[in-house]
């Protein structure tokens, strides 16, 4: 149960609203004017907000903090790398292959890989690679997961305006303004776990499907 009176969070939110849309750097961090969280510290699996409320964080930065916040082993290696090597240069280092080889040892089916700056860029690169290799255009997007912020995947079933009493499936609509209808030309959305829908899509577009996008563990 959170405190009703959160003076520090409210002050930070009012300040943030003047500087960022919705008062946050990422729309997923906006939980409403009264509930948007501003943290003061993190350790292990707990987070403490600026009004001294402590919570167990089951999301851990949407996944990457798998060993918890401020794990000394990780932090010490990061500090050592920053101190001895630097942060970013635009050039390669031996650490690139060190990390890739470690990942490959855990996932033997990987032949080669690259890192990207964000999940959005990773999906864009994967889709482009699939299209280039298959010489096909269409991608099938499984709803419910996060596939990036590029226009082609920012479509969803309009469940808010859907009449559940009908036999019709919901319309597919953009997540918001600024997403042209033309970006759906080579994209097909299907509901999660709807194998009939997948079969229907492949029956209709199978010869032009380059890839299926699905998030194995739903983040959103």
3D structure, described in words:
- This protein has 220 residues and is of the alpha/beta class.
- The model has no long low-confidence stretch (mean pLDDT 93).
- Helix content is 29%, strand content 15%.
- Among the domains are: 7-56, no CATH class; 119-213, Aspartate Aminotransferase, domain 2, CATH 3.40.640.10.
- β2 and β3 (54-56) form a beta hairpin.
- It is globular, with a radius of gyration of 22 Å.
- It is built from five helices and eight strands; from the N terminus they run αβββαααββββαβ.
- The strands form three sheets. The chain has a three-stranded antiparallel sheet, with no helix packed on it. Strands 7-4-8 form a three-stranded parallel sheet.
Short description:
By secondary structure, this protein is α/β, with parallel strands linked by helices. 29% of the residues lie in helices and 15% in strands. The strands form three sheets. A three-stranded antiparallel sheet has the order 1-2-3, with no helix packed on it.
Low-confidence stretches: none
Give me the CATH architecture of the domain at 119-213, please: 3-Layer(aba) Sandwich
Helix and strand composition category: alpha/beta
Mean pLDDT level: 93
Biggest pleated sheet: 3 strands, antiparallel
Amount of helix: 25-40%
Secondary-structure element series: HEEEHHHEEEEHE
Strand content range: 5-15%
Oligomer: single chain
Please tally the β strands and state the result: 8
How do the strands line up in the largest sheet? 1-2-3
In the CATH scheme, the class of the domain at 119-213 would be: Alpha Beta
Principal-axes geometry comes out as: globular
Number of helices: 5
CATH superfamily descriptor of the domain at 119-213: Type I PLP-dependent aspartate aminotransferase-like (Major domain)
């Amino acid at each position: 149960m959170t405190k009703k009176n959160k003076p520090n969070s409210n002050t930070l939110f009012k300040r943030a609203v003047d500087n960022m849309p919705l008062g946050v750097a990422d729309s997923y961090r906006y939980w409403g004017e009264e509930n948007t969280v501003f943290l003061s510290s993190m350790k292990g699996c707990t987070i403490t907000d600026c009004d001294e409320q402590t919570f167990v964080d089951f999301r851990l930065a949407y996944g990457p903090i798998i060993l918890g916040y401020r794990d000394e082993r990780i932090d010490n290696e990061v500090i050592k790398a920053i101190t001895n090597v630097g942060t970013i240069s635009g050039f390669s280092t031996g650490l690139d292959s060190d990390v890739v080889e470690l990942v490959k040892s855990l996932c033997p089916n990987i032949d080669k890989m690259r890192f990207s700056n964000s999940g959005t860029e990773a999906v864009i690169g994967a889709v482009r690679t699939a299209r280039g290799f298959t010489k096909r255009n269409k991608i099938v997007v499984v709803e419910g997961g996060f596939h990036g912020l590029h226009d082609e995947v920012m479509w969803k079933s309009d469940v808010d305006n859907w009449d559940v009493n009908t036999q019709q499936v919901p319309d597919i609509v953009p997540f918001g303004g600024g997403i042209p209808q033309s970006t759906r030309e080579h994209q097909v959305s299907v509901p999660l776990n709807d194998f009939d829908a997948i079969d229907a899509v492949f029956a209709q577009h199978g010869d032009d499907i380059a890839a299926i996008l699905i998030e194995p563990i739903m983040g959103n």
